[in-house]
Write a structure and sequence with these properties.
Number of strands of chain A: 0
Mean pLDDT of chain A: 90
Strand content of chain B: 15-25%
CATH superfamily of chain A: MetI-like
Helix content of chain B: 25-40%
Helix content of chain A: over 70%
Structural class of chain B: alpha/beta
Largest interface: A-B, 23 and 30 residues
CATH class of chain A: Mainly Alpha
Distance between the termini of chain A: 51 Å
CATH architecture of chain B: 3-Layer(aba) Sandwich
Low-confidence stretches of chain B: 1-22
Shape of chain B: globular
CATH topology of chain A: MetI-like fold
Largest sheet of chain A: none
CATH architecture of chain A: Orthogonal Bundle
Radius of gyration of chain B: 19 Å
Largest sheet of chain B: 10 strands, mixed
Oligomer: heterodimer
CATH class of chain B: Alpha Beta
Number of domains of chain A: 1
Number of helices of chain B: 12
């Protein structure tokens, strides 16, 4: 028989047994699960509530007609439901916004992360982030009353009062802080050792920033771009105020256009009868928007994974 | 004391069995060399390095010889890394850092107002404690320096030459397009050395290059250092005295003085041929440190 240093507890019980019930552990587990479940259930609920009227809509209007015809006149006496003009409006305005926001946002991020003195950064970054806090309706009127009136009219005298260009430009300005701030975070997370390595090889600041830091931060920068683009696609107020509400199958940004979001906002605010086909069209467009942004998020997750670097 | 027990590449069985001064002596190689440095590459006269008002390194005067390996040893906070980083103006990147005194490279003041730090760093390369490979392919890591310096060379040949010199070619020649992150720590450090020599520097500064490596990888880097010393001047900061004894021709021992306010200032205590520093140090502080009584 072997001797033991561990005495058995009175009654021959295992001295290593759990003696205190830990209720706190169980409670916190349930609370945290509930917190996570709320957002999942909400997403699920949204999908269902959009999907059901959409399916009713597609029972009346063939999905091919919806996706591939070019006239969108749901409120006319003889309504037509070709969604392409709305997609076109969304694409044109988003493209303008991206063309503005990516160079300016990435440029600001590189300046803040690599060039600005700590003092300048301390002032500039919060100032930039204030831009993200401006209500979008204010941006909308800024586009309509200032950009169109005083910037674009002198350059393009024939421009319409409501036009895609002003909405796109201002939407671009709106998403600069998103892109700049997230890209700057990604660059700041690049280990200092990589910069030292580049400088020690005789690289200049520009060569270090553009050829080492930006590639090293690429996954974060791509994520910032995609988030910015998603915000642009989903943005409603600027386009409702400044781009006009006329479905317009054109690439000319000087004309007014309607986007998917501004159709939803305008039709939803108007007096369409619940249960009517016009009413259901709102959900059909919403579903399309949801599918597009969902697809973009999938692509962005792929891109981020592809470029992700693990630093030791 | 702990510094002596750092993992280390076994040179012989006695090395592994013993600690303290004896095995350091056992690692010493080569013939006795003169106390005076001939063929001077770096000439330091009363060099002081400051971070703002804080004097991190006090009054260093020494010479570093061409195609020699010079080791800087000493306890943490003795300013040896700070001094090393001032050799190629890496300290310029730290706001508030400045150098006083004369730090001359082949007779030219590295801190003269008309000196371009980029030109300095191209000639005086640096290898860091953590292998800081770029998030690029193995090939692109080596090619980065020649590209940013606008060197007109056959890049494929240069990449092969540098990886061969860094004793890495045979291990990676079929994977040149793979990410450098796929390599082990020791391979990454050899890649960093290959990247460093690709810009054809004259000097390689090494700041604790083996601190994050295991003994086998350390042994490989040490062999590589001795091989490279035929063509390059190497200055290495190390916490590992056996490493200093094994690889270097000359050793500089630094320590930190604590002033009246409790602030530590690094200073050079003793500098000379490695064999002499380890067997017959002139200063009792050196003796204490290498015999493990202090540090």
């Amino acid at each position: 028989m072997t001797t033991t240093l561990v005495e058995s507890a009175p009654g021959g019980l295992n001295p290593l047994r759990q003696t205190k019930p830990r209720y706190g552990e169980k409670v916190i587990r349930v609370i945290l699960f509930a917190a996570a479940a709320v957002s999942i259930l909400t997403t699920f609920g949204i999908v269902i509530s959009v999907l059901i009227p959409s399916l009713e809509f597609f029972a009346e209007i063939p999905i091919t007609e919806f996706l591939f015809t070019t006239t969108w006149t749901p409120l006319f006496a003889n309504p037509q439901y070709g969604v392409l003009p709305l997609i076109m409006g969304t694409l044109v305005i988003t493209l303008i916004a991206v063309l503005i926001a990516i160079p300016l946002g990435l440029g600001s991020a590189i300046y803040l992360s690599e060039y600005a003195s700590p003092k300048a950064r301390k002032v500039l970054k919060p100032t930039l982030e204030v831009l993200a806090g401006i209500p979008t309706v204010v941006f909308g009127f800024f586009a309509l009353e200032f950009i169109t009136e005083f910037v674009l009219k002198p350059i393009f005298p024939g421009i319409q009062v409501f036009n895609a260009l002003s909405a796109g430009i201002v939407m671009g300005i709106m998403i600069i802080p998103t892109i700049a701030s997230l890209s700057e975070d990604a660059m700041a997370a690049v280990p200092a050792g990589l910069r030292d390595g580049a400088y020690a090889l005789g690289a200049t600041k520009r060569q270090t920033a553009l050829r080492v830091v930006v590639p090293a931060a690429l996954s974060g920068i791509v994520a910032a771009f995609v988030l910015g683009i998603s915000r642009a696609i989903g943005e409603t107020m600027i386009v409702t105020v400044a781009a006009g509400l006329q479905p317009n199958m054109t690439l000319n940004p000087l004309e007014g256009m309607q986007t998917m979001t501004s159709y939803i906002a305008a039709a939803g605010a108007g007096d369409v009868a619940t249960g009517s086909i016009e009413y259901k069209s709102i959900f059909a467009v919403g579903l399309l928007l949801f599918v597009i942004t969902f697809f973009m998020n999938m692509v962005s997750i792929r891109l981020v994974r592809k470029y992700r670097q693990a630093y030791q | 004391m702990s510094e002596i027990h750092e993992p280390d590449a076994p040179q012989s069985t006695s090395d592994m069995a013993m600690t303290g001064r004896m095995d350091v002596s056992a690692a010493l190689e080569g013939v006795d060399i003169s106390e005076t440095v001939s063929n001077i590459v770096f000439d330091l006269a009363n060099v002081r390095v400051f971070y703002g008002d804080f004097e991190a390194v006090r009054d260093v005067t020494m010479q570093i010889g061409r195609n020699e390996i010079t080791a800087f040893i000493g306890p943490s906070g003795c300013g040896k890394s700070t001094l090393l980083r001032s050799f190629n103006r890496m300290n310029d990147l730290i706001p508030g850092a400045r150098v006083e005194g004369l730090l001359a490279y082949h007779g030219f003041d590295i801190y003269a107002p008309d000196v371009d730090p980029i030109e300095v760093r191209r000639r005086i390369g640096m290898v860091f404690q953590k292998p800081n490979v770029f998030p690029k392919s193995i090939y692109e890591n080596v090619a980065y320096g020649p590209k940013v310096n606008g060197m007109k060379v056959n890049m494929d040949d240069l990449v092969e030459e540098c990886l061969t010199r860094a004793a890495l070619w045979d291990e990676v020649k079929d994977d040149l397009k793979k990410s450098a992150y796929a390599l082990s720590g020791g391979q990454q450090q050899r890649l960093v050395i290959a990247r460093c020599i690709a810009v054809k520097p004259e000097v390689i500064l090494m700041d604790e290059p083996c601190a994050s490596l295991d003994p086998i990888a350390t042994a490989k880097i040490e062999d590589l250092m001795k091989e490279l010393a035929k063509d390059y001047t190497i200055v290495i900061v190390t916490h590992n005295m056996q490493q200093a004894a094994r690889v270097s021709e000359r050793t500089a021992f630094f320590t930190a003085d604590v002033d009246a306010n409790g602030v530590r200032h690094g200073r050079l205590v003793e500098y000379g041929p490695t064999r002499r520093i380890f067997t017959a140090p002139h200063d009792p502080r050196t003796e204490d440190y290498i015999s493990g009584r202090f540090g």
